[in-house]
Amino acid sequence: MAEPALVENYHSATALARHIPESLEIWDETLRDGEQMPGVHFSPEEKLRIAEKLSEVGVGVLNAGIPVVSEEEAEAVHRVAHAGLKAKVLAAARTVPADVDAVIRSGVSHIAIFVAASHVHLRYKLRMTQDEVRAASVKTVRQAKEAGLHVAYVTEDTVRAPFDFVERLYRDVQEAGADRLVVADTVGIMTPLTFRWFLEEFVRRVRPKDLSVHCHNDFGLATANTITAVECGARAPQVCVNGLGERAGNASLEEVVLGLEALYGVRTGIRTALLHELSREVEELSGVPVAANKALVGYNAFSHEAGIHTHGILAHTLTYEPLQPEVVGRRRQMILGKHTGKAAVVEKLKERGIVAPDPLLLELLQRIKRETESRSKEDLRRFLHLYRALFEHPGLSDEEFWSMVEAVGLRPVNA
């Protein structure tokens, strides 16, 4: 973990404004919202494999999916629910009795009941009034509580809904038995300062027994907003491994956890040394490559090439690293390339006990620079073209779709 001196200023600067709960429960959404990322699909076997790893890492609660979606999804949720995991297993349902029944049948102990709240969602998607949403919410919360489930209640697009409606709705469901209330920034429009105001007002007006947040990353603020929410008393921040999720994804598990642990000195219950291993597992099973510059788990997160940086790192790792790579299960890499300096070459030669005089050292350094500058980028371009082809259109191709249309017997009206 980072040295105490490194985080002392962070702690003192935020101490007066923080209301961080004494115990946190990391809520992982990789198997539900993460799988809703375009092109991602987990088989029941894969869901179980990821769930086992999440539980091993120390996630408090994991969302296994929405069992009413399909028979395969119901099977996956059932498998995870009966796997004997340390993590609490949750499944999600709309404010529809049949959805709640499907969750009950799956055998999970926790349910997240969700419905939209903003004007745009109610008018154009649900075609429901606020009163109808309130009635459906109360009915399904009571249904789930009567079945003995721990109930989290979630509204999509909470932060764009009228606050008076949000207050009435959440008060109603909490009185009906909801154990945990979840505020969602569904399209990622919050900034940390605005979200702080919203959550403080929410806590003042609703007085939730237990608060959670669900933040999307459309403007790259999901991690910052989630940590802000923890400062405001949110006990169960929702995250996804590698920041997977719809559109630009969700708050990243590894970023939120290490942000809290390293910068705030807050214990999350997560075995951080396993985070890189977890990241690679999800990368492989989701088929979504982790960006090279992704915080903490990206391939370059603990890699150094520039001469100034490598010189500093060799003198003391804290010069250019806020924490030791081993904290997240990584190893430091010194990359030899165009920007390499003499110090890195000297260090590399030590691996074989070689001490080079300055003239030969400079010649070696020039060879390294010439070689890396002259390398072709064709392999990289081929990879990028393949990557774009896979992710610009990750679902069915037009050819596949129209072939299916023909196979089921659909024809143009005028044909």
Blueprint (SSEs and pairs):
Layout: H1 4-14, E1 27-28, H2 30-34, H3 44-57, E2 61-63, H4 71-81, E3 88-94, H5 97-106, E4 110-116, H6 119-126, H7 130-146, E5 150-156, H8 163-175, E6 180-185, H9 192-206, E7 211-215, H10 222-231, E8 236-239, H11 253-264, H12 275-286, E9 303-304, H13 307-315, E10 333-334, H14 342-349, H15 358-374, H16 378-392, H17 398-407
Parallel strand pairs: 1-2, 1-8, 2-3, 3-4, 4-5, 5-6, 6-7, 7-8, 9-10
Describe the structure.
The model is unreliable at 1-10 and 12-16 (pLDDT under 50). It contains 17 helices and 10 strands. The chain has 415 residues and is α/β, with parallel strands linked by helices. It is globular. Helix 4 crosses helix 5, helix 10 (222-231) packs across helix 11 and helix 13 packs across helix 14 (342-349). It has helices at residues 4-14, 30-34, 44-57, 71-81, 97-106, 119-126, 130-146, 163-175, 192-206, 222-231, 253-264, 275-286, 307-315, 342-349, 358-374, 378-392, 398-407; strands at residues 27-28, 61-63, 88-94, 110-116, 150-156, 180-185, 211-215, 236-239, 303-304, 333-334. The chain has 2 domains: 4-286, Aldolase class I (TIM Barrel, Alpha-Beta Barrel); 305-369, no CATH class.
